[in-house]
Amino acid sequence: MSRPAKAISPERMHRLRTTIATRGNSLDPRRPRKKPNSKSSNARRCITIPFRSNEEYTCQLSLLIILNAQSYQTLRLVRHFDSRRVIEVERPKATYLPHFNDILYRIGGPKPSPLRLSHLDKLEESLVAALRLLHAKNISFPVSAEQIELLPPRSVPDGTACPTLFLPYNKRATWASDKLPPTWQADQLSDARAIFRIAKILLQLSLSSSKPVYLDLQSQQALATYLSGRPASHHIDLCSDVAPVTAEFAYQISLAFALRNTARESLDVLESFFGGPMPLPEPDTPPYTIYTSLRTLRAHVCHIEAYHTIGLGLGLKDELQLDSPATATRLVCCRAQAATLLKEHEALQWWLVAMNLYDTFLSGSQPSSILERICKFDLYRYRNKKLS
User: Fold this and answer.
1) For 231-243, how does the pLDDT look when each residue is reduced to its tens digit (9 = 90+)?
2) Whose CB among 31, 87, 360, 367 lies 3.0–4.6 Å from 287's, allowing a Cys bridge?
């Protein structure tokens, strides 16, 4: 049996009733809520940025003053405290500002990008002008696509308004010093233009109605570098519409497809580059013989492509050749991975060929992809297997 409950004294009962009544009044929904203080609301939007050194503090403070004075869209300086090396800034009232990378991702995708080529030109010149202004004040301001945001334009009936460039806090900004290379200003301007160059090329590819699309050497080099950073799948599809292509560009497209387990597309790129299926070398074929064979195949394709592209002003005949044993090795790695994904009977032999080429031409360098790591460290345990 349970014990009888103890009686509650009148004094304790009074205290409990008082506590419940007090809490009930404080939570009573019928009581009018206190309106938020506008000053405290503004304070919550402020961002406090502390700095470890006086050099960092003065640099960030100076660039904010300079950009604000010239009406560039950036963080608004609210106040600063020299003694504590603290800066308080305020972001725009918009709840979300898309990064340039977000806009770049949408190009050629299911949800079209709102940017036009004319918008990209204006945004590029705005960024370059801001960098030149800071460079003139001896401030280094390296940028990337992740460090650029866009303020949405005011709505107009035809939707052609250009967004505004917004420069958020850049922790890499510093006073220029001897630690920077002599070409730091030119390098930063070149990097800034490269951000928009990729967007312009992809936008041109997405708008092109004719296939294949012809691109100059610099554009192909820029896209090859971009593809090495694991881009969106629809951007890989856009790049596959380009022809003729350089060996490096073909490798990056084929590799990008292979890493996404789309073996058929990866194989199509290789067969287009070599003018047909890649021949499987016989066992124990010397690496230089394999490379020479692939180089000859590519030279024949280049001769045909050069004939069909006369008058296009590409000037790519020499650049289209396969003149690098390292690139040839990487193309064979892509072929081996495609064979694995497609479960071909020759997959083992393709990997043995790839590892043989890797040992000869790439063993002295660090692997640049997972396929090279497979060869270097024999991740598939193929080296000791015998061909059946």
Assistant:
1) 889 999 999 999 9
2) 360
